[in-house]
Amino acid sequence: MRIIRMSVDQNRRPSGSGTVARFSVEISQHITLKELRLRINERGAWRISAPNVAGANVADISPELAREITAIAIAAFNEQTEQEPHDCRNVA
After folding, report:
1. What is the torsional sign of CA 45, 51, 55, 61?
2. Which of 47, 51, 54, 91 shows the smallest number of beta carbons within 10 Å?
3. pTM of the model
4. What is the tens place of the pLDDT at every residue in 11-56?
5. What are the residue ranges spanned by the domains of the chain?
6. CA 62 – CA 66 distance, rounded (Å)
């Protein structure tokens, strides 16, 4: 599994919460999820969310897979933004 594209949101809220980046992740050679959102809440917990169409998520991701994707997305975000590393253990 790997992040194949990430776009950092340059218009983040001053509080730092909300969507911080959108990204695509290659789950396997046969499956790529695109336009996932990497989000952080006011308490500093990270999560990902799938895009939605007409108010419905286009993908349901198990909690286990969501934690794995979130951890690699945080690592890619840290690398791309060259910020102090965010703690991957604080995943919602």
Report:
1. negative
2. 54
3. 0.82
4. 766 666 789 999 999 999 999 999 999 998 888 899 999 988 998 8
5. 2-81
6. 6
